[in-house]
Design a protein that fits this description.
Radius of gyration: 32 Å
Helix content: 40-55%
Distance between the termini: 20 Å
Mean pLDDT: 87
Strand order of the largest sheet: 2-1-3-4-5
Strand content: 5-15%
Number of strands: 14
Number of domains: 3
CATH architecture of the largest domain: 3-Layer(aba) Sandwich
Number of helices: 19
CATH topology of the largest domain: Rossmann fold
Structural class: alpha/beta
Shape: elongated
């Protein structure tokens, strides 16, 4: 049940708040001294604290409340705290809000405002618990996955990446071709490495060919080998192709969409029968090779245009692993950035925000380059947003400079759409809760309890 702890030495205050919160089905606990309040926090599950600022008789300095606030914050850093005081010291309240207090109010308080604030904080606390639970479950799943399979030290935290890795591990032991799709720089080769490391031929060779880095006239010789003098510029002795080198293991064909038509026909034959001939030879050779291919191209579109064989596509695509772009795996960004830093620097809050706001058209490869550059440019081992040099991105729901201050109609509309939930209304207006409260007080606006 949602629970609020009221720490106040005035019994009338505790009784009033218990009645007020009880109407909203909020459980209320009471403590009349800071010591009892701290003890109760150690024993009870509390979602929000409402605390007084003065406890000793004839005291108005607020020092006791400051000490209590700091003690709660030290023991429970994520617990929301609302400050109540009959003696309004604006500077003190502002300093405590900067230090993490959720809000402050003067006695006598406005019932509607206090209830709205507490409801917002309870809603936020519930969401925070759900996020923590969800992240905990994901961490346990990642640990279980790493304990069961060889993940080749891949760094990830996003659920989308986890699904791809889990599927890669599941299909690794099946002796069928695997097609990995996704944009350049997303990490397709890392997924291929995981498939090979968990396959039945993991002890065999793992050979990689980048079909996009070779001239089309050389790809066939690279894959299938060539006899001496088989083509212009060929060596004076026969050479093995990558299929022969990979016999008994795995061949990874990156950028498979660049394979020319003749190479596509030969590849299809190898996949079907394991047989091929070197260029310039009539002798048929037989190999047993697990083929993993990858591409950033739209192979179905290439099939429609007649540039890729449909039968080869279905032969390669027995299992498809689609690796999303980094922009769709936002939970991977900061762990990858920390990994690329190798402990030689740290990211400040501005840098973390800039990393999360960037679109990453170059995916993981671009992120690695940005981090390596920032590590060289930063001062005192702390990387700022400026060091990253990324294109500025507008923060969602934040008004750009020069945009009009929200007027009464805008605030009323935001409150209506948020059904009176201050945190949601403030977010839609690009304001903090405290800033929205100040504007509502100035305009005489209230939220119905």
């Amino acid at each position: 049940m949602r629970t609020v702890l009221v720490i106040d030495d005035n019994p009338a205050v505790s009784t009033a708040l218990e009645l007020l919160f009880g109407l909203r089905e909020i459980r209320t606990l009471h403590a009349d001294t800071p010591a009892r309040g701290l003890a109760m926090l150690a024993d009870e599950a509390v979602d929000v604290v409402v605390q007084d600022m003065n406890f000793a008789a004839d005291t108005t300095s607020g020092e006791e409340g400051i000490a209590l606030f700091r003690a709660i914050r030290a023991a429970h850093p994520d617990l929301p705290i609302v400050l109540l005081t009959a003696w309004a010291h604006l500077e003190t309240a502002i300093e405590l809000v900067k230090s993490g207090a959720a809000d402050y109010m003067s006695k006598p308080w406005d019932d509607n405002k206090l209830v709205a604030t507490v409801e917002n904080l309870l809603e936020l606390a519930q969401a925070t618990r759900e996020v923590a639970r969800f992240r905990g479950e994901r961490r346990r799943r990642r640990e279980a996955l790493a304990a069961k399979y060889d993940l080749r030290s891949i760094v990830f935290a996003d659920a989308a990446t986890e699904r791809v890795i889990e599927l890669a591990c599941q299909v690794a032991r099946a002796d069928v071709p695997v097609l990995i799709t996704g944009p350049n720089g997303a990490g397709k080769e890392r997924i291929a490495d995981i498939v090979q490391a968990n396959s039945q031929v993991k002890a065999g060779p793992f050979v990689t060919v980048n079909c996009g880095a070779l001239p089309s006239e050389l790809i066939e010789a690279e894959l299938f080998g060539a006899e001496a003098g088989a083509y212009t510029g060929a060596a004076n002795k026969a050479r093995e192709g990558r299929f022969e080198v990979a016999d008994g293991g795995t061949l990874f064909l990156d950028e498979i969409g660049n394979l020319p038509p003749a190479g596509q026909a030969k590849l299809l034959r190898v996949l079907e029968s394991g047989q091929f001939e070197r260029l310039g030879s009539s002798r048929t050779r037989t190999v047993k090779v697990r083929v993993i291919s990858a591409t950033n191209a739209d192979l179905p579109a290439m099939i429609r245009e007649g540039r890729f064989r449909e039968d080869l596509y279905y032969r390669l695509n027995v299992i498809e692993l689609r690796l999303p772009p980094l922009a769709e795996r936002s939970d991977d960004i900061l762990p990858l950035a920390q990994h690329f830093l190798e402990g030689e620097a740290r990211l400040d809050d501005g840098a973390c925000g800039a990393l999360l706001a960037h679109a990453w058209p170059g995916n993981v490869r671009e992120l690695k380059n940005a981090i390596q550059r920032a590590r060289l440019l930063c001062a005192h081992g702390v990387i700022s947003a400026r060091d990253l040099g990324l294109a500025a991105a507008r923060v969602p729901n934040q008004r750009p400079r020069g945009e009009a201050e929200p007027d009464r109609a805008m605030i009323e509309d935001a409150l209506t759409r948020a059904r009176g939930v201050i945190s949601q209304a403030a977010n839609s207006l690009g304001l903090s809760r405290q800033a929205l409260y100040r504007r509502m007080e100035k305009l005489g606006l209230k939220v119905d309890a």
